[in-house]
C-alpha cells in the first residue's frame, strides 16, 4: 500500500487535530491498524518514549513509536506479510521508569505460562474453526491419574484423554504429550481433539498429557525422564487401556524443550515409538566451538543435538515438524529436516508466519495429528 494512503499518515496530513479527532480516529481504526501488508501499532498517553516489544526475528526489537506532533497519540508502522500472526506488548518510559503491558487499544490477547500478550493478526490469518467448541462434536473425557515412578523417584501426575465412546472392544493409538497441562490450558487441545475426531480428520486416540516438575532439567536428554516415559508410563497405560500393541500406534509429542524431550526419549528407546510430533523443538547445535548463545540451560540440549547430528540414527519411522518463521529456532529446525531424512525417516515439515508461542502450536495441531494418526476413513489399525 502507498505509505501516504495509510490511515495514520492521512491523520498526519490533517494536523493539528484535537482530542475529539483522535477519539474518532481510534473508533474507526482498531489497533493495530492492518492495511494490506502494513501494520500500524498505536498508543495514546503521555510518555517520554513508547516502544513495541516482540520476538519477531527480522524486525527491530524494540520497535520505536513516534508521537504525532502536538498530540498524545503514538504510532509505529511495519511490514506484516499476509497470514502473519504476532504477539507483542508495549513499553513506556517516563523518566527512569519503564513499564511493559498489553496494548490497551487491542482486545485480542493470547495466554501462556509466562502471562499474556497482545495479538496482531495480519490480513489472511484466521483462527481455525476447529479450535472452538463444537456442540455437535461428542466430548471425550479427561481422567486424572498419578503414577508412582521409580525412575523419577516421585509421584507423577498424568491427565488422560479418552475419546468419545471409548470401548475396550477397539484398540486405540497412544499419544504422549510433553508439557501436557500447558497444551490443555493454552492450546485448547481437548477441544481440538474432540473436533478433529468428530470430523474424522484424526483417528480416535488415547492421549497422555504429562506435566514436568522441572522441564529445564528433565527435558534435555534426561535419562530418568526417558525411562519413565518408555518403561513406566507406556506399559502402565497398556495395562489399563485397550491400546494398539505396535510402535506405529505410539507417538511422542512436544514443543520447544518438550520437542527435545520427545526426540531424546525416542533416541534412547529406538523402536518403541513409531512417530514424533515436534513443534518448534529447541534443536540448537553448533558446527564449531561451544558458543551456542542459549545460556547454560541449553548446554545439555546442544550436547545432545551435536552428538545426534554427528551420528544420526532412526529411532522412529516418521516425524512431523512445525516451526514459526519469526522465531530464532527456525534455522535449526530447517537444518534438522535433511538430517532426519538422510537417517531414513519420513519427515513432514511445515512453517507458519508466527512465533514461538502456544497459539502457533495450536494452529498446527490438525496438520500434525491428521498426518500421524489419520482419520478412520484413511487409515485402519488391525
Automatic annotation (TrEMBL):
Q: What is its main location?
A: cytoplasm
Q: Which residues cross the membrane?
A: none
- Gene3D superfamilies, sorted: alpha/beta hydrolase (3.40.50.1820), Immunoglobulins (2.60.40.10)
Which top-level group of life is the source organism from? Bacteria
Recorded hits in InterPro entries, A to Z, give: AB_hydrolase_fold (IPR029058), Enterochelin_esterase_N (IPR021764), Esterase-like (IPR000801), Ig-like_fold (IPR013783), Ig_E-set (IPR014756), Mycobacterial_A85_antigen (IPR050583)
Has keyword Cytoplasm?
yes
For this UniProt record, give its keywords in alphabetical order, as a comma-separated list: Cytoplasm, Hydrolase
Question: Is Cytoplasm among this UniProt entry's keywords?
Answer: yes
Enterochelin esterase N-terminal domain residues: 39-91
- Location within or outside the cell: Cytoplasm
Q: Which family, according to the similarity comment?
A: Belongs to the Fes family.
Put simply, this protein is called Enterochelin esterase N-terminal domain-containing protein
Amino acid at each position: 500500500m502507498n505509505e501516504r494512503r495509510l490511515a495514520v499518515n492521512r491523520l498526519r496530513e490533517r494536523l493539528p487535530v484535537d482530542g475529539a479527532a483522535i477519539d474518532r480516529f481510534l473508533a474507526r481504526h482498531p489497533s493495530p491498524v492492518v492495511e494490506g501488508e502494513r501494520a500500524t501499532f498505536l498508543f495514546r498517553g503521555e510518555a517520554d518514549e513508547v516502544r513495541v516489544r516482540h520476538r519477531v526475528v527480522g524486525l527491530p526489537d524494540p520497535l520505536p513509536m513516534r508521537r504525532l506532533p502536538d498530540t498524545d497519540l503514538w504510532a509505529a508502522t511495519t511490514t506484516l506479510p499476509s497470514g502473519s500472526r504476532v504477539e507483542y506488548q508495549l513499553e513506556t518510559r517516563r523518566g527512569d521508569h519503564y513499564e511493559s503491558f498489553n496494548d490497551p487499544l487491542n482486545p485480542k490477547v493470547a495466554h501462556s505460562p509466562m502471562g499474556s500478550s497482545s495479538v496482531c493478526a495480519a490480513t489472511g490469518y484466521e483462527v481455525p474453526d476447529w479450535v472452538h467448541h463444537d456442540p455437535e462434536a461428542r466430548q471425550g473425557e479427561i481422567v486424572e491419574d498419578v503414577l508412582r515412578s521409580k525412575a523419577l523417584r516421585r509421584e507423577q501426575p498424568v491427565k488422560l484423554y479418552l475419546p468419545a465412546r471409548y470401548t475396550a472392544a477397539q484398540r486405540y493409538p497412544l499419544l504422549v504429550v510433553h508439557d501436557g497441562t500447558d497444551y490443555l490450558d493454552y492450546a485448547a487441545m481437548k477441544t481440538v481433539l474432540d473436533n478433529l475426531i468428530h470430523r474424522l480428520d484424526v483417528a480416535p486416540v488415547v492421549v497422555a498429557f504429562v506435566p514436568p516438575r522441572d522441564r529445564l532439567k528433565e527435558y534435555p536428554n534426561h535419562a530418568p525422564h526417558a525411562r519413565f516415559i518408555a518403561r513406566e508410563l507406556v506399559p502402565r497405560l497398556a495395562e489399563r487401556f485397550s491400546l494398539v500393541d505396535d510402535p506405529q500406534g505410539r507417538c511422542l509429542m512436544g514443543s520447544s524443550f518438550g520437542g527435545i524431550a520427545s526426540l531424546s526419549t525416542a533416541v534412547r528407546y529406538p523402536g518403541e515409538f513409531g512417530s514424533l510430533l515436534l513443534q518448534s523443538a529447541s534443536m540448537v547445535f553448533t558446527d564449531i566451538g561451544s558458543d551456542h548463545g542459549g545460556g547454560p540451560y541449553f548446554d545439555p540440549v546442544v550436547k545432545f543435538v551435536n552428538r545426534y547430528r554427528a551420528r544420526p540414527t532412526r529411532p522412529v519411522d516418521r516425524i512431523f515438524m512445525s516451526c514459526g518463521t519469526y522465531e530464532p529456532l527456525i534455522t535449526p529446525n530447517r537444518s534438522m529436516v535433511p538430517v532426519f531424512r538422510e537417517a531414513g525417516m519420513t519427515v513432514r515439515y511445515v512453517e507458519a508466519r508466527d512465533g514461538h508461542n502456544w497459539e502457533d502450536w495450536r494452529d498446527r495441531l490438525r496438520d500434525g495429528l491428521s498426518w500421524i494418526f489419520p482419520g478412520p476413513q484413511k487409515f485402519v489399525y488391525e
